[in-house]
Here is the input.
Amino acid sequence: MHRLSSGGILPILALATTLAATPALAQETIKIGVPMELSGRFVAYGSSGKRGVEFATEVYGGKVAGKKIELLVRDIQSESQATISVFNELVSKEKVNYIIGPIGSPTVAAAIPAWRQGKPIWLVPGSSSTKLEEEVGGDPEFFHTFPYAYNYHESISAALKNQLPAGQKVAMIYTDDNYGRTHQPYAKKYLTDAGFEIVLEEIVRTNAADMNPLLTKIARAKPDVLLGLVQTTDAVTLAKQIYTRKLPVPYLIGTAATQLDEWQKAVGPAQEGWVGVTTYLPGLNRPGNKEFPKLFPPSSEWEAMFVKKYGQEPDFEDAGCYVSAMLLFLAIERAGGDDKEKVAAELRKMDIPNTLLGRAKFVSTPSGTKQQAFTDMVVFQRENGKNVMLFPPGPETKKIKAVSY
Here is the structure.
């Protein structure tokens, strides 16, 4: 029998101690992947999404189920290849059980194959594309916390029907990407159902520098309403060129970009009169939650906290990612730890009234998403540098105004 010297025993004991301690150390934190568009085309979405998750982590206290919350924030650069690389790292290397993000429809779509390699719980607080619903809506690990395209256009059409006379003529301009092509048929359906006449539908290349040829066609059609199914830089280009040529269309309708501080600063006076649709708007005065008053205070109090910390008003993804992160933290707390299946079960059982986005309850959609929360949207108009509520009807609702140059 071979005998080990004391010099051989100590290193082995040290190694054994280290190995024994490693799992315990690994369990001291709960990892949450936060892949966001922190640069590139969708930076306005990703930067606010990151802010929302980080703010939620701070308000929650930095720990959940007795363990430190570790946010693995990654920049996916608004590009498909970078998105795939980041998801591969988070799913295969970091082996996270939870992911929040990204936001943009193209980047979310690019992430699907890499996500499927491990299927962590995936909260998607963005992407209105119904192609996402078709591909992963039925997966039990997929939780969508943002409206789909049909929710957008149901709200826009209802607002215009409520505000304008029947039979108004509508022209549409939409981008040749996932966003524009997804929204166009729903916009057409809901506007037609609401009694509007579609007189023109024009497609524009993404990142087109000159939209004037299309605007000339629109001017000839003499519509009462122009609906721009474009986002980010395309929304800036469209607004600026409409303003420069003083396009004679009384009502200009946008989608998510209209609320963004980046869009408003980029287009300057061209923002006046534009109508937008969103999930959250400062000044909504939504009530707080009595069970979780610290996590979900009245929206006015939450906005004051946000402005104090960041020096600016929150936008819809600040609120959306804040709420999504809070729901995940509560589910982990209720599950008693980092057990993916138990956490998913707790998310499915969740029913919390009066969050910043309204009632938090995951339900199935007629189109195939098993776990969908938050489909209510508000329609507003930019007036003198402020947001004026147009829909749904209520005490603060104002009458839509025609654009005047």
